[in-house]
Specification:
about 70 residues, 3-stranded mixed beta sheet, globular
Amino acid sequence: ESMAWSGNLSKNIRELRFLMCQSSPASSSARTFVEKNYKELKTLNPKLPILFRECSGAEPQLWARF
């Protein structure tokens, strides 16, 4: 499954920041997305900062700084 849009992220976005809980069921989809897609995102956008903040009980969020 290819994410064709992922190679263009660094053209418009200056930073991606993920906030999630390390173990809660509410954050499981966010953790799965990061595990499956981080390598490709970073390979296609090597200079784009992709940050992860883990906090017990946090609701999953994705922040993009333009």
